[in-house]
Amino acid sequence: MGSKDMSGEGHGERMPGQVKIVQEAGLGYTLTVKREDLFKAALGLKEAGFDMFMFVSGVDYPDTIKLRYRLYSTKRKNKLNIFLKTEVPKSDPVVDSLTPIWPSANWHERETYDLFGVKFRGHPDMRRIFMPDDFVGHPLRKDYSDNHMLVKEEFIQGTVIKGYREDNSK
Amino acid sequence: MGQEMSKIEEAKNLTQNQILEELEEQLRVEEIEEQPDTIKTEEMVINFGPQHPSAHGVFRALFHVNGEIVTKIEPMIGYLHRCFEKIAENRTYAQFVPFTDRMDYVSSMHNNWAYVLTVEKLAGIQVPERAEYIRVIVGELQRIASHLLFLSTAGLEAGAVTPLQYYFDERERILNLFEKVCGARLTYNYMKIGGVRADLPDGWLEETLSFVNRLKKTIVDYDRLLLGNYIFKKRMKGAGKISAETALAQGLTGPPLRSTGVAYDVRKSDPYSVYPRMDFEMVVRFQGDNYDRVVIRSEEIKQSLRIIEQAIEQIPDGPILAPGLPKDIRPPVGEAFGHIESSRGDLGYFIVSDGSLKPYRLKIQGPSFANLQGFPAMAEGSYFADVVLTLGTLDPVFGEVDR
Fold first, then answer.
1. Are A123 and A111 contacting, i.e. CB atoms less than 8 angstroms apart?
2. Confidence band (pLDDT; 50, 70, 90) for A10?
3. pLDDT tens digits for range B183-213
4. What value of ipTM does the predicted structure carry?
5. Is the separation of the CB atoms in A108 and B377 below 8 Å?
6. How far apart are CA B120 and CA A26, in angstroms?
7. In chain B, where are the structural domains located?
8. Does residue A69 lie within any of the structural domains?
9. At residue A7, does pLDDT exceed 70?
């Protein structure tokens, strides 16, 4: 998708380090940061007037989980949307929690933990939100399999059911 | 014998003393009762739901109650979780439209709309003007239907049974209109990627206009019946209060946010479809209590009526579906986010495409989920009897909370 460089304009100057706010066709303004800089960048955005945390969500790729935060500013005249982007490796899916900055991040981060297995460091209540506490796996990962929930062969009696299962498995 | 007698007398004296002590204690209690702050009460935990008629769905919460005051609320959700986001990854773009109906089943049209809007943004599809106008008309009718249901249940929870009959009568007329357009009364599946599924039947616009003219007059009476009622006002005013700062911090959207004085309406702040051509006002109230959250819905119905009138006036002839659309849509690789103002707030879809027939990832930003998160902040510290009213004024639909 086409992107327009917007660095050095508006609140782009306030960002720590070398981060750029770019405009993407489908998302509008986006800001991509490393996961170490996420908290700092979020704090900067909060100071810049982004007072609403709309959601955080993951996208599962083979090696990484990309995180997308949608933030919104009611204070700015033009009512600005921004997407904060970061990614975490699947081997160590940990990222700083933004709940201390926006309390509303609480449930959204729990949801991302529940469905993707991304742990949020510093979250006050890191539990599953939709799935039961004893649930195994994280359903929105591409490699999620529910084989452990299937009924074991030895519990199935009668050839009809067995035949049915075998037919289905082909 | 004498010893035994003295023993009995001692026992009598003892009991008399005990009675005196008890009396003294009772008197002491009476004295204390005059200063209610010093009564020692124990905290009690009351379980609410998951099946409860006032929960508007399957919602469970633990209320920590100290006397009459609710000190802490622990909400628990997920009882209606169907993992629609995972289902979307296994369906083509067009196949997912009926699933969006089941998300927020009280305003299905909006869910259809937000989804197709995002896919159109992702694939770069231009929607014909007539289809946009039809979407605005049915979308606003849907908002009215949803708000009418809200008003009737809000009244019901405060003990007002009569308004429900009137609100449901009006809602029934809208459902009849929808039935004529798409054949369904609750889960419409009416919007299609690139337009709408069917054109409006003959005479439908005139019928809608006569309904609008009717509701314009009757809604004033209903306002007097419910919102002007003394008991209803007493129950609702000042309860479940939330400040604008807390509402923003808790991530509220839609009418609960606008009731605190924050002017955020997607139709105005990020206009989509043909809303820039419509002349209407964003309804904002400032108290942030239960009463404002009810009033704001009634006022929004009046604004929606204005929008429908204008849309019926302006609607052009023409196609209702973008021409030359393939049967299976393959959006280019990329990410897109689209959102609309649903009856409950900012409803958004975030879709990632990998260039195949199916979405690589679909995320739904449900306003009910966001609003419900602010429920403890609103209800903690209020009377136990007001908690259910506060939950009701948030108007959560659990199909959308749990997805």
1. no
2. very low
3. 888 888 898 888 888 888 999 999 999 999 9
4. 0.81
5. no
6. 10
7. 1-40, 70-402
8. yes
9. no
Between chains, do A74 and B83 touch, taking CB under 8 Å as contact? no
Give residues 29 to 58 of A whose Cβ lies within 8 Å of B: 51-55, 57
Residue B17: pLDDT band (50, 70, 90) is: confident
DSSP string, B148-201: HHHHHHHHHHTT--HHHHHHHHHHHHHHHHHHHHHS-SS----EETTEESSPPP
By mean pLDDT, which of A15-24, B28-37, B79-88, B157-166 is the weakest? B28-37
State which residues form the domain around A116. 3-140
The candidate with the shortest Cα–Cα distance to B148, out of B133, B165, B136, B160, is B165
For residue B142, give every residue at least 6 positions away whose Cβ sits within 8 Å of its Cβ, in sequence order, or none: B107, B108, B109, B110, B174, B178, B343
A100 touches chain B (CB under 8 A): no
**For the sheet containing A3-5, what is the strand order?**
A3-5, A21-24, A28-32, A81-89, A64-72, A52-60
Is B257's pLDDT higher than 60? yes
**Dihedral sign computed on CA atoms, order A32, A33, A35, A38:** negative
- In sign, the C-alpha dihedral spanning B192, B196, B199, B203 is positive
Please answer whether residues B403 and A131 qualify as being in contact, where contact means their C-beta atoms are separated by less than 8 angstroms: no
Instruction: Give the closest-approach CA distance of A152 to chain B in angstroms.
Output: 24
Domain assignment present for A158: no
CATH class of segment(s) B70-402: mainly alpha
Residue of B nearest to A128 (CA): B78
pLDDT digits (tens, 9 = 90+) for A48-82: 888 889 899 889 988 899 999 998 888 766 668 88
Total number of domains in chain A = 1
Residue A62 within a domain:
yes
- Determine, for residues A25 and B334 on separate chains, whether the beta-carbon distance falls below 8 Å: yes
DSSP string computed for A4-15: EE-TTSGGGGGS
Q: Assess contact for A27 and A4: CB atoms under 8 A.
A: no
Cβ contacts below 8 Å, chain A against chain B, sum to: 91
CA distance B256 to B221: 24
Looking at chain B from residue 267 to 306, which residues have their Cβ under 8 Å from any Cβ of chain A?
269-270
3-state helix, strand, coil in chain A (%, to 5): 30, 25, 45
> d(Cα B242, Cα B261) in Å, to the nearest integer?
11
The whole-chain average pLDDT of chain B stands at 86
- What per-residue confidence (pLDDT) applies to B186? 87
Single-letter amino acid code for the residue at B2: G
